[in-house]
Design a protein that fits this description.
single chain; about 130 residues; mainly alpha
């Protein structure tokens, strides 16, 4: 039995499954991204899911310093983060809306940024010369 989590939905694979469900066309994650219509139902629904996952993470970590979103799906399809449905879902329910309004969201489109952090961690662990 496979378990589906919010993290699975906001991946390229989730985008492809959503494309198939809403448009009836089976595509690869890459195809789903290139065929994404910013005004279509796939973009709106995926942005809403993305906003909910980000909201849950922001609440769980109490991210006062803001949130930086990076990765392939959002990096290649920034509309998923800039879409009104993302913002609506991110602010979300009334219980946390006041806090969520204060959380700044930024999109990092640099696909190599994770490598920079890993390189810095290695340098931090290296013995001094």
């Amino acid at each position: 039995m496979k378990v589906c989590t919010g993290d699975h939905i906001v991946t390229g694979g989730g985008l492809a499954l959503l494309h198939e469900f809403l448009l009836g066309e089976k595509v690869t994650p890459e195809q789903a991204g290139t065929r994404l219509d910013p005004d279509g139902p796939v973009a709106e629904t995926h942005a809403r899911f993305y906003g909910r996952v980000c909201r849950n993470w922001a609440i769980a970590t109490y991210c006062l310093g803001g949130m930086v979103i990076c990765g392939g799906v959002a990096g290649h399809n920034p509309v998923l983060v800039t879409h009104e449905a993302f913002r609506d879902a991110f602010i979300g329910d009334d219980e946390y809306a006041e806090f969520m309004e204060t959380v700044q969201v930024r999109l990092n489109r640099n696909g190599l940024s994770g490598l920079y952090g890993a390189a810095q961690a290695v340098l931090d662990q290296a013995p001094a010369p």
